[in-house]
Amino acid sequence: MRLKDKKVIALVENEFEDLELWYPILRLQEEGATVDLVGQEANKQYIGKYGVPAQSAYAFTDIKAENYDAILVPGGWAPDKLRRYPEVLKMVQHMDEKKKPIGQICHAGWVLISANILQGKKVTSTPGIKDDMTNAGAIWSDEAVVTDGHIVSSRRPPDLPPYVKAFADVLAGQE
After folding, report:
1. Which of 16, 57, 65, 113 is most buried, with most CB under 10 Å away?
2. pLDDT for 36-53, tens place per residue?
3. How far is CA 79 from the centre of its chain?
4. pTM for the whole thing?
5. What are the DSSP calls for 48-113, one per residue?
6. 106 is catalytic
7. For this structure, is 107 an active site residue?
8. Which of 54, 106, 118, 151 is catalytic?
């Protein structure tokens, strides 16, 4: 299992896109990674856009980003809430500074925008936030997956298989 001993933060907040949270978590766990669901509150049940629940194991303030190898930001409407938490922005900024993998799909780009880490980065997202991404200095492309160093981005649920494979490859050090 190539991701054995890898620890990943999966951010969660209400109205996450169900598949964009759960598909990456399950695929990374299949490869041996430990994935911790982290929300504003520990042991809280968050509900996805389509009603699938996710229970956080930890609160943002319970963990230290330096103890993790990567971070995943789901899409849906959750990113609009996640980007308002200073602790989330600090986690994303830490991962960026240390060049640890950051996965973002769909509207998750909003979190990276608010963390101010996209200047000059090649990314993709749902086309609905293309202008937001480019206004933040990103170089946007309409592709299923775009990998720029440690940042792996994707557009939407149909792109999940290549997105999670690319993220796992970066996490495993096999770009």
Report:
1. 16
2. 999 999 999 999 999 999
3. 9
4. 0.97
5. -TTS-EEE-SEEGGG--GGG-SEEEE--BTHHHHHTT-HHHHHHHHHHHHTT--EEEEGGGHHHHH
6. yes
7. yes
8. 106
